[in-house]
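At this stage, I put together one protein's amino acid sequence and its backbone structure tokens, which the following lines show:
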Amino acid sequence: MTRGIIMGDEKVKTDPSATALPEYTVGDFNSTTKLADSQIISDAEYNPFEHRQIEKPNSTAGSLIHLLKSSLGTGILAMPVAFKNAGLLFGAIGTIVIGLICTHCVHILVKTSHMVCQRTRIPVLGFAETAERVFQYGPPKLRPLAGFSKAFVDYALMATYFSAGCVYIVFIATSFHDVINHETGNDWSVRIYILLTMIPILLIGQIRELKYLVPFSALANLFIVVTFGITLYYIFKDSLNFDDKPMFSSFGTLPLFFSTVIFAMEGIGVVMPVENSMSKPQHFLGCPGVLNTAMGTVIVLYAVIGFFGYVRFGDEAKGSITLNLPLEDTLAIVAQILIALAILFTFGLQFYVPMDILWRKIHDKIPKNKHMISQIAIRSGIMILMGGIGLAVPELEPFIGLVGAVFFSSLGLFVPCVVETVFLWPNELGKFRWVLIKNIIFGAFSIFALVAGAYVSIKDIIALYTEDDEHTE
């Protein structure tokens, strides 16, 4: 999924009426905001929104566009294969339910962050800092876990975006593999195209200034819109046959359905930067609100593409619906090339996020005169490792399922439930502790998606290699 990252030069200025804070970059996933240990207060009158002073804040409409842009990407192209693993009826219902769960988890994360800001008199907190403060001022027995919780979110974000980058590399290579082999008659392996893809990847991944990534992002957005249009044309240009599509697929493939949809929809990493940069952050939650409007749109579009894409291509649906388009048509070839270029141009922005977190953690340990060469070496090493993972697992469908199961389910579903529970423990969990019960259910679902999705994905990957070995023999 194209995880568009809302970054920028906006700074949150310190508020004269609050405790002096270091400068905070709104776009950062790894904020350096600090708070004195004695700064817990009981002043319910403190409104963090009134104390945010942001240069170049985003309007409500702009924030909605940013959130939509971050959610609508390559993940939507994988929805038909998700429906293949669920069936028409279960896929439609399951997509809506998972979408609502993802939306709720985002909601409780942002709401908890607001309450932590109010309690600690900090105008704005990022994802990792919210988790840290919740544990730091939570139940006494859990306070030693504050540092671990922040580190866990930071490293989980890095792992999530690095692994998604591996999916990007495989996706780009697979798209060019199909087009070039078809047009030239070559029989090159997709692994050769992964190696070729690494050449521009290694160049784009060295860009460390966001302003230089803006033109790439703009082109990527244009290419994605055109590709969506072409894909919809092929889906609806002929009559659709619903009769041969099952309403429910099988229990064995459901974990892949869950993990693929979670991968496609979950954009937890971009939520806090979007909300933190709003001129009117009170418009983010609520009804209709930025979050509900964006996620409602996303759920409908994902369900429509998944449903009708599966009806059109059935069991032939691939990890990206663009790979199902007929290569005999020039328009289909254009769509494949454009989406591959869009993902290539988005890679720099995708790679910026985890590298920004990693560099902030290690740059103080490296002499300043070696920062340049160190950045080049570290970035190159990580990208080569990502390419190596792509070479090891060049199959798109199980790879997407594995990434969605392991990373997005834990970071997007499990962590928000834990954060809310710890913050409200023990006396603010509602009547009959319904908040605790609800979070246990959602947490259990995330663990199920993680374990079952990872198991099925790894099993499919092993099966693919076994089949390859049998064919070789």
In short: The first helix runs from residue 60 to 71. The CA atoms of residues 78 and 320 lie 5 Å apart.
